Amino acid sequence: MKRLLLAAALLACTAPAFAGSFAGTTGGATSAGTSASSGSSSGDDKLVLAARDDAALFVASDGAIRGARLEAALRQLRERDAAAREASDLDLARAILARR
Amino acid sequence: MRGRFRASCLAGLLACTAAAAAQPRVAVDGEGLSPAEQAATRELVAAAMARLPPRIADGLGREVALRWRDDLPEQVHGRARNGRIGLDRRLLAGWMARDPADDRDPGTRIALATLLHELAHVFDRSPAGGLSRDPRLLDLAGWPVRPLRLGLRTGRNDFRDRSPDPYELASPAEFLAVNLEHFLLDPEYACRRPDLHRYFVARLGTPPSARGADCDGALPLVAAGNEGAGLQLLAVDPARVAGVDYLLAEADASPMSRWGHGMLRLVVCAPGRAPGPDCRLDLEHHLVLSFRAFVDEVQVSNWRGLTGGYPSRLFVLPLARVVDEYTRVELRGLRSVPLRLAPEEVARLLERAARVHWSYDGRYRFVGNNCAVEAWKLLNDALPGRDGPRLRSITPSGLLRRLERAGIADASVLDDEAEALRLGHRFDSLSRHFGGMYAVASAELGLPARDADAWLRLDPAVRGEWLERGGLRATAALLVLEEAALRQEQARARETLRRRYRRGGDGDGRIQALLQALWSDGAGAGRPAALLPGSGYGLPQDDERGLLAARVPDTDARLRAAQAGLYDAALAWLPERQRGRLRATEENLERIGERLRALAATAPD
After folding, report:
1. What's the pLDDT score for residue B312?
2. Nearest to B329 among A14, A23, A97 (CB)
């Protein structure tokens, strides 16, 4: 995938943040190392993939930094999967980090 | 409807005139008219009077004289002066030739609409009228009070798109007359302009000929795609929106964001979830309403920003995209403060937002019409009971303070910082954590840089040597930092490209062409009316929604293709060294990803 949205780059394409700059709109700058490119990710996976930054902060801070995206992903994983209900937050955050 | 009415008229002209006589009469000046023409004119008057809600009919006051004229200027169908109405005589022929069975017959429609239009003027000027001076109507119509101008209103109406008749923008009086035509004649008015329909019903009563409008409750919105350039068509049912937050992007040092940016966040519930507090975490369904300048050039011009040189439009964006844009790219934090609104108020707010979305094409002014002013107008126009004038502010943070003071915004959700972060009332700038992440990684690995900033500035190849040595915590920390490094490389690349572009454009004009393509298609994101040229007015209804369902994906595909092309062209245009750094940083991220997977597979617990 075009992780690097240079395109959004040169310009402020569809929704330029005037108050911003040419930051571009990098909604697509999904977490690195993921191949969000695969195109196979369903809407549900999107939530989990979007939680990757939050999961990294959570794991690196040993649970101290707990963002809403991680919280949402944890809830979703547990709503869908009985095994996830047994797992600890940290386990699930690690699993999110390991996703591709 | 019309057929039945006409039949009853013919059956008893007397009855009709008697009914009309009970109301203030419209006296027809029959001079020069044949008996058939006189009869047709009386039918027209009766048809018009039958459409008037009692409050208008009673308000007309003294007798209104009606005359057919052939001396009106071209393009003018009718005129009302001093309680006398003159109509273009050519309309009479059309009226007499109408198909009585077809109430959409153009001859029927135009004569009746013209007479109603002129009666609306007479009513508006009567003591019972005056609607065109009502501040509430002026707000709804699009002549807002200007900030810093002692309550003076704008002279120009910027609700230009998807107008039923551009003449409505000429003045508040014409706005009233044109809209009453549609209110009284068009069964779809309630669905196309629900906010105005509600206003007229409240002020004038339901028109006698009203059919129960069966509007689709879900509002059509054309939102930016989830990533990159792109569009998506959404149908947002207000009943599925659990609440609305004021979303404030904190200020940063750059001149245009010193005041922060104010937006509204719609807490849309995931399908199947009952609206309530649990919807807070349905982040992937939340939407952001953001007024922004549409900048169709590579360099933002302060001058154009100050003087209204850019369009100001309401963009609908997925929340995830907004969070990325601010917290990862611009490195600014977000605060999301719930507004205490009743479900009915949420629905009114969405309805108004939809009207702005489909019709508004304003001018951005850095001081007088910025995002805070626009957001205030939206709240003020949608929530008339909330004492809008007291809330007005020209800065995003000022607006939030006033909303708090008025008890509308509930900032107590921010008191507990950890909880606010967990529930998405705060989204921290990622830069807040760079130091901490570096400390975690360095404690384990003994990294060579002095601090996080120095680490990020290192050559990616140097950083790369450290990426596959750490345990889970250190590697997770390195992931956060490496992503930041990538975004810094991207920012530098953008800056290089922008300078190159401004210096001399691109050799073969390819980039210019791609940019133009993105801007013209991209306009659909803030000005969706461009996707439905020449069709109906107001909120799109059934047929138009069908068209949108076909056109939005087409435009989306074109945008994506243009963006991909631009990406390739821009990448090829970068100096080799920068391209190399970008690639190396991306490779670093791949390696961190692999490392994390390997660590997770062997995790002890």
Report:
1. 85
2. A23
Indicate yes or no: CB of A25 within 8 angstroms of CB of B428: no
- Residue B62 CB coordination number (10 Å): 10
In which domain, by residue range, is B56 found?
2-204
**Three-state SS across A10-32?**
HCCCCCCCCCCCCCCCCCCCCCC
Residues B146 and B248 in one domain: no
Mark yes or no for CB contact A22/B515 under 8 Å.
Answer: no
Please write the tens of the pLDDT for every residue from B285-302. 999 999 987 766 666 666
Region class of B30: left (phi > 0), else alpha (psi between -120 and 50), else beta = alpha
Domain ranges of chain A: 1-30, 37-98
B311: chain A residues, CB-CB within 8 Å: none
Chain A contact present for B40, CB below 8 A: no
Instruction: Tell me whether B257 touches chain A (CB under 8 Å).
Output: yes
Q: Are residues B65 and B119 in the same domain?
A: yes
The first and second tokens of residue B388, run together, are 């809008």
Q: Does B223 lie in the same domain as B188?
A: no
**B463 in Cβ contact with B588 (< 8 Å):** yes
Do B423 and B463 have their domain in common? no
Q: Looking at chain B, which residue has its C-alpha nearest residue A4?
A: B490
pTM confidence score: 0.88
pLDDT in tens, B204-245: 998 876 666 788 889 999 999 887 778 999 999 999 999 999
Is there a single domain that holds both residue B258 and residue B339?
A: yes
Is some CB atom of chain A closer than 8 A to the CB atom of B487?
Answer: yes
**According to the model, what pLDDT value does residue B90 have?**
92
Average pLDDT score, chain B: 88
Q: Provide the number of structural domains found in chain B.
A: 3
